[in-house]
Amino acid sequence: MANNDAKTSYTAADIEILEGLAGVRKRPAMYIGSTNQTGLHHLAWEILDNAVDEALSGFGKEIKITIQKDGALAVEDEGRGIPVDIHRQTGMPAVQLIFSTLHSGGKFSSKVYTSSAGLHGVGSAVTNALSTYCDVTVFRNGKINHLRFEDGGKLVTPLEVLGNTKKHGTLVKFLPDSRIFSTTEFKFDIIANHIKESAFLLKGVKFSLLNEKTQEKVEYLYEDGIKAYIKDIQANKNVLGDIISFEGEEDTIKIDIAMQYAYQDYGENIYSYANNVRTRDGGTHEQGFRAGITKAVNDYAEENSILKGKTKLEGSDIREGLTAVISLKIPEAKLEYEGQTKQKLGTPEALPILTNFVYNNFSYYLNENKEFAVNLIKKCIDAQNARVAARKAKDEARSKRSLKQDVVLSDKLTPATSKDYDKNELFIVEGDSAGGTAKSSRDRQHQAILPLRGKPLNTFGIPVEKTLKNEECATMINTIGAGVKETFNADHSHYGKVIIMTDADTDGAHIQTLLITFFYNYMRPLILKGKLFVAMPPLYRVQKEVNHKMIYRYAWDENDLELAKKEIPGGKVSRYKGLGEMNADQLWETTMDPKRRQLLKVTIEDALLAEQRMVTLMGNDAQERRRWIEENINFNEVDSFIDEVK
Q1: What is the DSSP letter of 87?
Q2: Quick one: pLDDT band at residue 120, thresholds 50, 70, 90?
Q3: Does a structural domain hold residue 4?
Q4: Burial class (CB in 10 A: 0-12, 13-18, 19+), 187
Q5: Mean pLDDT computed over 431-452
Q6: Domain finish residue from 362, 386, 410
Q7: What is the enclosing helix (H) or strand (E) of 325?
Q8: CB-CB neighbours of 278 under 10 Å
Q9: Which residues touch 370 (CB under 8 Å, ≥6 apart)?
């Protein structure tokens, strides 16, 4: 049957051409991912990347960022200044072209930038398109050049010369459009963390950030580059040996690596970059690094008869407790990425180059630092023993002969009936009381319930085998069914969503934190794939009988409660102390019904910051934890790792 809401004909007259930057405004998420806080800050990174590229190419030693009183962001560099002469093909000044035309810029060949972070010439134009105004000042050839765009990229002040100067560089000021973004408030901490990372990678370049509203200010300058990066990451850890660093150039690819091991750190943390862009999904450079490390350690152990009959160490044994930063500068002609997100390096040459470079340099270091080498290999052997024990424990947990484990699963888990795993949801619930209510509330086809007894284990900084022996942890691992640690595959999860559902009180928040720590340490891809959530049960219910009918409204916070009181004046306010106090129908309609509930998605926006927060908040340094909490937490507000409302 024809759809009466759509035209039956489809002709050339139906083809719409979006002139200039109109397409960006119509579909902003195609260019910046979203129109929430993440997308807002993406605009900042686009302009900042241009300044970084100038410094990366050796032009300028300082980059200034200012959050202005009107909410705009200003980025000023000491580079060469965007060209202002007339572009032959278009007849317009080059700077105007760059800010008003997609896929225009100087980064498409190696003539201007040997390596760059800029995203294919769309950044400046996209930022302009999504701004209320974009004001550009270029200090070049002794002149102050200026132009201004408003209302999504409309030129209101053509290029003009304002005077003379001895400065060189570019100053861009832009105010994001409130009609596009859900928030236009730039966050000082988010920008500060971003430029701190850039300062580590750009040795000797100073970054400063000022918030004119609050007068907050930070400055970052690291002469030791990524060695200082490692020192910062490892600040609260019990480290093994000094920071190790290698720097060199192989076949026009510049390589900078720093690394350090830590005791009582049972994971690996590798932060890799290509032309100052974080490659979150790794790639050929990480593969080469891992291969070089593995071969160097095994060869040293064999040559010095340290293994004494044991099998060769696996890569995971050697990388346990390792933190490393890998930074490559790759010429544009060799730069390749897998996928469109630029988060996984695909440059083929990087694999053999990194393998040989790391093997040669690390082998030399081991031979020159024998005490460190012996201690490292002892640590690796301990990791090997723990891995074997953990594998044995996992096999036992999976075995049908393990009657105890079968009882654990059958006692606790109320499974979903559907085998369509992508549609299934696992609710991890605090306590048997809430678990009973959730079982009565749920959609039996797609929702499974797993109640926990007591506080979960803090899995930060403890051996894997101890976690696997913990009943609650073992039950979650087996229930999700996708492996653990390096064997975990989020695509094999029995659930499309894993949802933590706890009481809205301090105990519930603590349980959330412990569970998020567990998933961060043992099933991190679940977070990276966007499959871990926290349920949002309401705090209040306001109800009143009107005309023999009970009307009610739920409230999730104090502000929401005030609105509910206005909607139902004189209504009775009930405060939910726990999920178990709700009736099954109340829990369903507020917290479990996919059509009406609110979920918070657990995300990792900044892997370095997440690791640092995890060390501070879940590690053994109580004094540092107390200091951070006192300085950063407002107990009148809800704040956590979780930052995206679904």
Answers
A1: P
A2: very low
A3: no
A4: middle
A5: 90
A6: 386
A7: strand 322-329
A8: 18
A9: none
Say yes or no: 74 and 109 in one domain.
yes
Q: What's the pLDDT tens digit per position in 490-527? A: 999 999 999 999 887 778 888 888 999 999 888 988 99
Residue at token pair 């407002």: 634
299: annotated active-site residue: no
Q: How far is CA 402 from CA 362, 395, 474, in A?
A: 44, 10, 13
The range of the structural domain enclosing residue 373 comes to: 226-386
Whether residue 606 lies in the annotated active site: no
Known active-site residue 503: yes
Contact 53/107 with Cβ under 8 angstroms?
Answer: yes
The answer to whether residues 466 and 497 belong to one domain is yes
**Dist. CA 522–CA 488, nearest whole Å:** 8
- Whether residue 357 sits in one domain with residue 403: no
288 falls within a domain: yes
Residue 627, C-beta contacts closer than 8 angstroms, at least 6 positions apart:
none
Domain co-membership, 145 together with 242: no
The 8 Å CB, 24+ separation contacts for 408-412 are 408/471, 408/474, 408/475, 409/475, 409/478, 409/479, 412/450, 412/451, 412/475
Q: Looking at 216, 420, 507, 545, which residue is catalytic?
A: 507
Number of separate domains in the chain: 4
Instruction: Please pick, among 62, 332, 505, 581, the residue that the annotation labels catalytic.
Output: 505
The interaxial angle of helices 607-618 and 226-233, nearest 10 deg, is: 30
Both 169 and 26 in one domain: the answer is yes
- Is 7 within the bounds of a domain? no
